[in-house]
Amino acid sequence: MSDSFRWPAGADPFRFLEALDSKRARTWVDEQNARTRAALRDDDGYRALTARLAQAYLPRERPVIPTRWREWAYDLWQDDQHPKGLWRRARWDDWRAGRPDWETLLDVDALGAQEGESWVFEQDAIRYPDGDRALVSLSPGGADAVVVREFDLVQRRFVDGGFTIDEPGHHTVGWIDRDTVYVSWDRGEAHATAAGYPYDARRWVRGTPLADAPIVFRGEPDDISAGAWFDPIDGRHVAWRSVDFFDAHAYRLTEAGEWARYDVPTHVEVGFWEGWLVLEPRLDWDCGGVRHAGGSLLAIREHAFLAGSREFTTLFAPQASTSACTWTHTRTMLIASWLDDVHNRTMLWTPRKGEGSDGGEGGEWTWDAHAFDWPRDAQIDVEPVESTLNDDVYVDVDTYLDPPECWLADLADRAADAQARRVLLDRPPVRFDAAGLVVRRANARSRDGTIVPYTLIGPRDAVEAANRDDGGDGGDGGTRVARPCLLSGYGGFAIPNLPGYSDALGIAWLERGGVAVFAHIRGGGEFGPRWHVDAQREHRQRSFDDFIAVAEDLIRTGVTTAAQLGIEGGSNGGLLVAACMVQRPELFGAVLCRVPLLDMRRYPKLHAGAAWLDEYGDPDDPHEGAALAAYSPYHRVRDGVVYPPLLLTTSTRDDRVHPAHARKMAARMHALGHERVWYWENTDGGHGSADDLERAESDAAEFGFLWAHLGPAPARG
């Protein structure tokens, strides 16, 4: 794309669609929904697919994988009678013995019916160590904004006159003691950062007005957010200032009652565990005469760090094929996880004090490493069950073609037969026929020569055509038939595109003979910080080039044709597919664009957009603005161009990515004469679906749209 493009002069004729609930905007949305409902949500095929997906999403009987809090097992149970859920609990030992006596704490559907609000249960914060009270966050319709209410877990009711914030906002509330909490209170735009988040923390005492609670920590208005929290395990008070989406300052409360900043760059994330500082530099970091690569994982005793030492233990150092490292912990172990060539790797680290140490902070420490092996090549997620008690973990095992599994394992069990004692908690039934389907990796070459991996799932003959130089016919002039192909991507915020079992993809696409492809493009996190930074800010076009290169490779190798190639993405992925559609419309047969960013001139002024300036760049900066203007889909779409059929979906309640992005794109394209554009706006749900029934309806409509335009010729009409 040319970098000489500038923002167009004159008023935006569709700016009225940014007024979320204005009569004019609502009328427009209602008209678009009616048009799309008639086209995509009003036939027997849609109803049959919705019913099958709903059956997959809401089985009547399924194992419960609870959250453990001390001696209790907590669960949010959802089924077709309770789509929003029953928050309930049972004794942990009873659940493990297979005889839980569940007591319902809160019926979210009944509460919503009583109060006339579509409440979504977001989270609970149970007070440690007594466990008698919880701070419950409820979201109206699944938005990011929440209300907060104190809940009595003994009486099983909300606390009259308790810690309550009734106005939805980006609040964070956490316990200090029974009668005191830290709260970052979202008081509205006049008191928030440009991104819409609070930038101070108050110490709120029970029985006092929230407005009178003293501010004990304050960030800056141009931060993304700020706040404070208390760790009851070691009595630590911590505060933070998020200066942009990726970087933050971390502070500790000293014995003198002052906030002292940890002396690390903002790109170094500071974590805490058992007297250790665990540091994650996002970028290369020169410290103490040593260069620590971005994506490393470092550890040092906190007392030593505060005394001036910078002799870190390197727990993970990235390589060219690896991602950055993430970590969590159990009672005695640190769990480090990363990707190596998009395959999961996990290491267990146990700190050990040298012999002869006096038990204080003096003496030498070493770390023992143990690989966490699993007998299958899959995406493995290891999460502590109750890190204050023991070394038990849940192990989630995910692949593209096998239903996900959840296991319970004891990391402290190092016996030779330890694997045999791991307990399978959940293996859902197979939801689609995967017979004859295979998973393969292939590579495309981007415009600047970068090798871009992608993963294919589909019938063997189609998938193994990828990366051939014979046009997909095996070199003998054969007659391999190209198939409908759905290419997905994200490419932003250092988030990797990882394996996962998808009921909808399997039922509505793979079973029909389609091929699914996942592109591991720059901007994501598959290959560490550099893979992300290379497509950040003014370099965003590299993400689009990578995605286009994968599309071209799929066509070149005969996996599919342009007429049969669909692309889909959500949020940043919605920006990706829209930009690629505008730049190369001839490459694609259909586009599914969900909850997207599309107006890159006004994105910082819409909902949480200001939080993403470090990802996309500033539209008012001459250099970065030119780069944004060069690809902004809303501004680059033209008349006289044949674009593929496009379905735009969003939600009125999405308070992260404003629905105006999708609204205005649909309106502009219709005004330019592009009739093969459909728009759907959920009035419930936030940046995702509000419940599984709604998800089934949305997925059925979206896959119906894709198959109608990409499937066999009779289906395409």
Automatic annotation (TrEMBL):
Domain Peptidase S9 prolyl oligopeptidase catalytic as annotated: residue spans: 507-711
Annotated coiled-coil segments of the chain: none
Gene Ontology biological-process entries: proteolysis
Keyword Protease: yes
Pfam families: Peptidase_S9 (PF00326), Peptidase_S9_N (PF02897)
Keyword Transcription: no
Boundaries of every Peptidase S9A N-terminal domain copy: 11-252
Superkingdom field: Bacteria
GO cellular component: cytosol
Record keywords, A-Z: Hydrolase, Protease, Serine protease
Molecular-function GO term, any one: serine-type endopeptidase activity
Family annotation (PANTHER family): PROLYL ENDOPEPTIDASE
Name of the protein: Prolyl oligopeptidase family serine peptidase
Lineage: Bacteria, Pseudomonadati, Pseudomonadota, Betaproteobacteria, Burkholderiales
